Amino acid sequence: MEELRVKKLEIRNNISRNFNKLSSNNILKKTQSIEQRLFEFANFVEAKIALLYINSLYEVASNDIINISLNFNKIVVLPSFNRDKNEITLLKIEDLTTDLKLGENNTLEPDAETCKPIPIDFVEIAIIPGLAFDEKGGRVGSGDGLYDRLIPKLPPTARKVGLAYESQIIQHVPMESHDKQVDIIITEDRVIYRI
Fold it and tell me: Where does ATP bind (predicted)?
């Protein structure tokens, strides 16, 4: 187990080094290509209720995806994580500028006081963040295991889609028993279906 954690830390460090070599213009172009592929992806187009995310450093930027989804009249839900109670609540947002607050770990998340909870069973597509993925759907996240706990709770019919830059696709993600895979990965160059 410790060996796998060390390998994942190495992957995170490599991704951050590679990411820091990219210009902001290059990142923007790649992000726009990923967005275009996502908005042409049939499962996303047809979904009425989409679980999205607020990106962290080294993850594909999500603000434009959220805003465009809202403009397409999708119901957009974002996760709110209570780490102390090990609970995940999905909350519907209607406006990025008014519906978010600083949560635990100084990350933005939906405001539980103003956003309506949505049952996880209603999610039709889940866009899952990650720092690295492999072609088998393995993912390396931030290391806190929050999405590994969320993914199994999603309906079996909900597609789990990772967004990544091509440079974040690696040969092999070391998987622990609690690690969960995504079904599909969308990069700036291709759509990868889990092997």
Answer: 8-12, 139-147
Please state the pTM of the whole predicted model: 0.93
For tokens 């187009």, what's the residue?
Answer: 45
Annotated binding residue 3: no
pLDDT in tens, 133-161: 999 999 999 877 889 889 999 999 999 99
CA distance 56 to 60: 8
Please indicate if the annotation marks 146 as binding a ligand.
yes
- The Cα 87–Cα 159 span in angstroms is 22
Is 167 within any annotated ligand binding site?
A: no
- Neighbouring CB atoms inside 10 A of 120's CB total 18
Q: Which residue range is the domain that position 189 belongs to?
A: 2-193
Q: What is the CATH number of the domain that holds 89?
A: 3.40.50.10420
